[in-house]
Structure prediction request, 503 residues.
Amino acid sequence: MIYDRLNFRQFARRLAGVALLGVASLSLAQDYDLVLSGGRIVDPASGLDAVANLAIKSGKVAAVSVDPLAGKTTVDVSGLVVSPGFIDLHSHAITPRGQYFQAYDGVTTALELEAGVFPVAAITQLFEDGATINYGASVSHLAARQQIMGNVSQAHPLLAASAVDPKQASNRQAAFVSTASETQIAQIAQKLSDGLTAGGLGIGLLLDYLSVAVDDRELAMVFAVAATHRAPVIAHIRRGLPGDEAGLSELIRQAENSGASLHICHLNASAMQAVDRFLILIAQARARGVDVTTEAYPYNAGSTQIGAAVFGRDWQRIFAIDYDDVEWAETGERLTKSRFEVLRANEPDGLVIHHYGREDWTRKTMVAPGVMVASDAMPIDDSTTGIHPRGMGTFSRFIHQYVDESAEGSLDLSEAITKVSAAPARRLAAFAPVFAHKGHLAVGADADITVFDPALIRDQATYKMPLNESVGVRFLLVNGEFVITDGVIVSDAKPGKQLLNVP
Ligand SMILES: [Zn+2]
Prediction:
């Protein structure tokens, strides 16, 4: 449990700081559109952690004060935590149903940065009827590569709804196995560059899925394009045998040589028992001036498509598991050798959940300073019945399981909110100015706000019953508009905006 006892000395010290931060305006009644009154405002960016009032006007934070504030509407949030909205750097669930679950999990911005989309504008088609929360994407190296290597158009390579025409399936395979010529590398570079110019939030690099296809020349090109645009590369590193650090070192070297920024996806899933070593390698690179960051999700199982390249390799040794550790996500069925082979041949886009992690590896990663929280939410649409629960529960599970303000070795709320909001926003703000207004609650910030009950917040999604909303998020505001009130989603609220890196 969390929040049973406050650290009062720390609390008092932060409260003393409120007078400096507060911009109380006692002048006129109803100056503001909305006031959240009496909540514990935790804003790691300013160091504020105190019971205070927060006012919103025209979709922005307009005042934070211990003095009373008057709004057209006032909501009493005493006993609740008022946090900058959670920012998910890694969500493949960029659909209305995916956003529904992520909203219940406290997420106000969900970004598809690992796989990306190409062309970048294609993401807007997924939200023609409006978006519940903010969304955006990187430029997909894989989608660009599929266009060049196989003449296959698939803007979102992981989304089932964008599955390619069966006639193109073998062309698509070429993108996963064929090495690019110099001419093709130059053509892919042009597409990546076009995507960044169009506002893509970095370059998404699914390197492990392309392990046999992408060589040093192509990698150097990806990092060179990123460096030219001062954009990050967001990567799923190559996987070796358990604990093999070669895949991490390879990309740190590329970042160092090119000067590009690098974000490593799901560190716990990639590092396994070598998580301490991976964290040291990242810290050493940062000390040398390499801009490298990482993230993790609080689950011990992974999930991917059964057709993924890794399942064509020596996967039992790579994950140190066997067939019955692999679960068919749609039904929960544990697989046998023959069933695995049938499904891989006939339904390569079908999702599996492979149980290969350990809680001590995950915990070390989640609580390590600097590691951000990101869900890796899997693609979901209206027909999805089985799926990894991380898309529903990552953020509330993280707070429920790893925050305990009375225990040594656990996180306090400010540290946790840094990981779910302040740090992800800062990661992107250096490159995409739109994020300078997110991840904090200073006056002028976008009013993306997660208000949760620290004693009740928790995930409800399990491997067997994944389609359960998290509980404990009492109010969720996106661009100043309520998406959740009194713990229930406002189904017709669509204040989410597309986030682009545009001047
Ligand atoms: Zn991944």
